[in-house]
Every structure is written in C-alpha cells, then in structure tokens.
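Quarterly update from the structural biology core.
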Amino acid sequence: MRVKIGDLTKIRTGKLDANVSTEDGEYPFFTCSKEPLKIASYSYDCECVLVAGNGDLNVKYFNGKFDAYQRTYIIESNGNEKLYMPYLYYFMKGYVDELRKQAIGGVIKYIKLGNLTDALIVLPDVKTQKKVVGILDKVKGVLDNRNLQINNLDTLIKARFVEMFGNPISNTFGWKVCSLSDCLINIENGKSFICSDEPRHGDHPAVLKLSAATYGEYRPNENKAILDEAKFVVSAEVHPDDLLFTRKNTPELVGMCAYVSNTPPKLMMPDLIFRLNTNDRCNKIFLWKLINLDVFRVHIEAIATGSAKSMSNISKERLGQLRIILPPLELQEKFATFVAQVDKSKVAIQKSLDEAQLLFDSLMQKYFG
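Predicted structure, tokenized:
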C-alpha cells in the first residue's frame, strides 16, 4: 500500500535567516548545509525529518530542541501512529536522490512543498517499518564509516594545502598573485542538445550531467545517453588529466572543479561545464584544490552573476579575471605528488564504499520501490 506523505504528516518550514547562528549556541540550527550550525534559542521540540529546500537538498533525522532556516522543511507525524519517523527518513533520502536525478543537468534548484506532500511511500505496519530501519541502519553505519575515512583523507589534503601555501585569500606567504587567464592556454566549452533522461549503456556516447563535476570529484556515471550518436562532439570529449569547471549552478555550488584522473571513453562535457587547459605556470591538481577550497569560495562568489534565488553563472571573461596565488611550479608539483599518494589510499576505501552503496541501494529499492 502506498500513501501520500501529506496524509501522514504535517509539514512546515523554519522562519530564520541563516546569519542568525552563533558559534557557542546550545541548540542545533538546521540550514541547507549538511552539517547543522548552532543557535542560542530554539523554536521546535519534536521528532522530525528535515529536508533542505535548496542547496544540496540533504535530508536529516532529529529528535529534540532545535531551530531552522526558512528554506528547511520540518516534517512531523500527524499523530496517527502509522508512521515510524526513522522509516520516513530513509524514504526521503531515496526520494530526494530521485529528484536530483530527474533534474535538468543533474542539479535541482529547490524543492516545493508539493514535491513532499504528493510523494507516495510504501507503508507496512510499524513493526515492519522498525525492522526495515534496523537493517538499513547497519548498512548505513558501514557507509558512514567509509565516508568518514574518505573525508579524513580529504581534510588531510586541505591541511597540507594550507601548510604549504597558506591562506589563499590573505596570501599568508606573500606569493605572486595573478589572473587565472595568465595560467591558462584556453577555456573550452561543452555542448548540449536533447538526449535521453537515462544513463548510457556500455560505451555508447553520452553527455555528462552537471552533477558529474558539481561536488569536487569526477563522477562519470552521472551522464545522459545521446539518442543520435552522430551528434557526439569529439572536441568536447572528456579525457584523463582534464580539469572541469561548473560555470552554472546554484549559488552554493557554482564554480566547483573536478579533476579527471581516469574516465571511460565517449563522454562529453555539457555546455554548463568548462574545460580549463593550464599552461606551464600552473599545475592542474594545485588549481583544482585551490578553487574547491572552502575559504576560496568568496573569490568564486565575487565573479558569479545571478541573484541568490536563481542559478548563478560565471562567464569565460569573469573566470579569466579570477585572482589566484601562484607559488613556484616546483612547489605546486610537490603538492600534486602528495595528493596522488593520498588518492591511492582513497581508491581502496572507495571500492569498499561502492560495494556497500550497491547493497544499500538494492535494499532501498526493495523496501521503497
């Protein structure tokens, strides 16, 4: 039996701006970020599922006192005792992932209330719901552990970057500063046209989704099959050692980079992605990690156009004007060697993570369809 979420729950949104958080606050403050902030007071005290209405559209479960950003949906049971809230959490995780996949370019801008209230959930009895949650919790525990290991390695790389190059905004070490255009041979465009909503099968030509580069790591499986193979544009094909830059995205995600260490053949860039071809003054891996560095986002935001409520865009001209530090090439390459060494450790962990993810996905399909 499938039931509308709106018939089982009451849904409201937070009321606060994101800037009201306080570092020493006592209560969680849920925004569209993956990790909650802190706040000194609370407006809600309940068991609920929280869905970020924009940004990366994450889903969280919480039971207790908290407050929330105005674009965060707070979903509570309506008191009919037919819904186990952790069960709803898992359903929502899968459902929001599907919303992302259905979005044009692979990134949905925001979630509407109707997206939540009209969603249909398989609803067995509460005892069965609790059994399902117990099984999913075990697999999620493995996933969380593997992701933590990978995040720790990513943190190690960021720490090494700051150790070697300092803060790239304040230019701690007084490196030479230049425009990005001084470090590039050119910036290449991708191409887009009407294609399938489904990913390709085998090595048939396909166009990458925007999400293939959105989160700082190259994801070749995020693609859409090309219906007419004659439309494949060879000049836009992705190759190893490419540096991909998302020129258009939500304000929170625009301007992210992904380095292509390896890739299947016959995948091409969409027109929402640039390829940055560096000259001999700049190492691509150094540039990749610099652009994605959290503290560097202020420079990316400065060259993006578009309002906070719309998609942001970065033109070739404005990207070329981006100001970056330029340490000696020898030091950049030393950092790139360190990144390569850490990535070897990540490969083994990623394999285990992928296997656990396949199991988790199959269980989600089994329980929620």
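The mean pLDDT is 93.
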